[in-house]
Amino acid sequence: MPFEVDACVTFRARQGLPSPVRAAAGQDRLAPGADVEVVLRAGVAFDDDDLTERGWFFDTDALSARLAAWAQLLADGPWTTRFPFRPTFELVARHVYGQLAPEVPGLAFVELEDRTYGSRIRYSPMPWSISGVK
User: Fold this and answer.
1) What are residue 119's phi and psi, to 5 degrees?
2) Which of 5, 51, 116, 124 makes a 20 to 30 Å CA pair with 107?
3) How far apart are CA 110 and CA 23, in angstroms?
4) What is the pLDDT of residues 55-74, one digit of tens each?
5) What three-state secondary structure class fits 14?
6) What is the DSSP string of 46-79?
7) What's the pTM value of the predicted model, to 2 decimals?
8) Cα distance between residue 102 and residue 112, in whole Å
């Protein structure tokens, strides 16, 4: 796929999970109820043949609107009360991908970036897996 277009939205969120790794390393942890700056990004991939006569394939405004709605949901209270699963960044990215995929043609990935602690998770369905890694 020679083209990839992405859109993103930045918001503040409270994941609500403790960080045992940071605690064990003696690093700063979030205070109860504290939030982090998060970027939600989604990308759409497409080929030359997918371009319309107008020279585009995808309406980025439509994707931006969907991401804004998800950002509003993710910013509204701790994720631990929002989802029926343990809301790690990995699982939330996969969940958002699953919700967006039927609505967004060519959805290639959903990414969550934690700007406060400097990590980024990208969920993109792949034809391969890493076996033996847990």
Assistant:
1) -125, 160
2) 116
3) 28
4) 888 888 999 999 999 999 99
5) strand
6) E-GGG--TTS-S--HHHHHHHHHHHHHHHHSSBH
7) 0.83
8) 19
